[in-house]
Amino acid sequence: MTIQEFDLFKAVNIVADFADWDTTARLNHSLRAYCNYDDSEFLPYETLLGKTMNIMSGIISSLSYMHLSIYQISHQDLNEELEIEGYTEYDLYRYHYIVFSHSVALLQDLMFKLTAEIFCLNVPQRMIGWKKLEKELKKYNLINIKQILEDFYKCFSKHIDKRNGFSHEGLLTYNALDNYYMTYIWTNSHTIDEKKENLYPQYTKGSNDNVELLKKTKENFINELKLLATEAESYVISLCDMCFPKLLDQVDIDFFIEHGDNLKKLNNKPLNRHLEELGI
After folding, report:
1. Helices (H), the chain
2. Which long-range contacts (CB under 8 A, 24 or more apart) does 41-44 make?
3. Could you read off the pLDDT of 115-161 as tens digits, one per residue?
4. Which of 27-41, 76-90, 235-249 has the lowest mean pLDDT?
5. Which of 57, 45, 55 is nearest to 20 (CA)?
């Protein structure tokens, strides 16, 4: 199941779609409402829903690129053209890991932004720093959200640091990736002396032991990234569990009264639960 298939993500999509229809009908200038518009033309909750949808789209893209990076490492082989240019399989894996680590760093930024928008926190619109965000979270006693964001950083800090190091210095190292690299280097540098016993068959290029070692080292790298991608989705879902009820609370009750019957037909659990709480 992809992240956008979870009920909470669907709930926000549904409410935002109904709000878009309301906006178009009220302003009576169709698609002009979606370009070069003035925020003053929108009701506060319509603006909030629009910003939330944009952030959610970014979150979905970040998670998607994490999975795509893993897929490419798993399935992309070095072709002859790249090999002639001097590239190795390690270069391919390194390239896709850069995309993976960048997506992780972006995901953290978007989680900060989602929290700040929904809870109306007094932080910069761009480049939200942790210290200012943490101060606001403590101010409003949002301890559970603070814990989720801290746990996310603990889990992914080394990958965020790797991304920052590459972005600013062009340097990239990572244990699981480097383990493959060293295995690859040893494999290509080891030569067989027919007069001596081969003490390192696992590093003899083309041997069964060598093929298995390279395969195992690559699998370990891929499995670690897969685990991280699953963890990332888990943190996003936990954050949404905390944020989306607050988002729905900011939508005018008249909206839910007007659209209640149609919303119920969609049988979305978070929305149905919210409608019940409102007595609709």
Report:
1. 7-27, 44-75, 80-84, 89-118, 130-139, 143-169, 175-189, 208-249, 253-265, 269-278
2. 43/252, 44/250
3. 999 999 999 877 899 999 999 999 999 999 999 999 999 999 888 87
4. 27-41
5. 45
The string of DSSP letters for 107-121 reads: HHHHHHHHHHHHTT-
- Calpha distance 17→35 (Å, rounded): 17
- The amino acid that residue 120 corresponds to is C
In terms of Cα–Cα distance, which of 258, 227, 278 is closest to 21? Answer: 258
Q: What's 125's DSSP letter? A: S
Q: Is 70 exposed, middle or buried (0-12, 13-18, 19+ CB in 10 A)?
A: buried
pLDDT of residue 110: 96
Q: How far apart are CA 96 and CA 100, in angstroms?
A: 6
**Is the pLDDT higher at 26 or at 225?**
225
Cβ(278)–Cβ(256) below 8 Å: yes
C-beta contacts of 36-43 below 8 A and 24+ residues apart: 43/252
**CA 126, CA 17: separation in Å to the nearest integer?**
26
Handedness of CA 99, 103, 109, 113 (dihedral sign): positive
Using alpha carbons, list the distances in angstroms from residue 14 to 6, 10, 106, 119.
Answer: 12, 6, 25, 20
**Residue 92 near residue 78, CB atoms below 8 Å:** yes
Q: Do residues 200 and 170 make contact, with C-beta atoms less than 8 angstroms apart? A: no
Cα angle: 185, vertex 186, 192; to 5 degrees: 130
- The amino acid at 114: L
Rounded Cα distance between 62 and 59, Å, is 5
pLDDT of residue 62: 95
Amino acid at 149: L
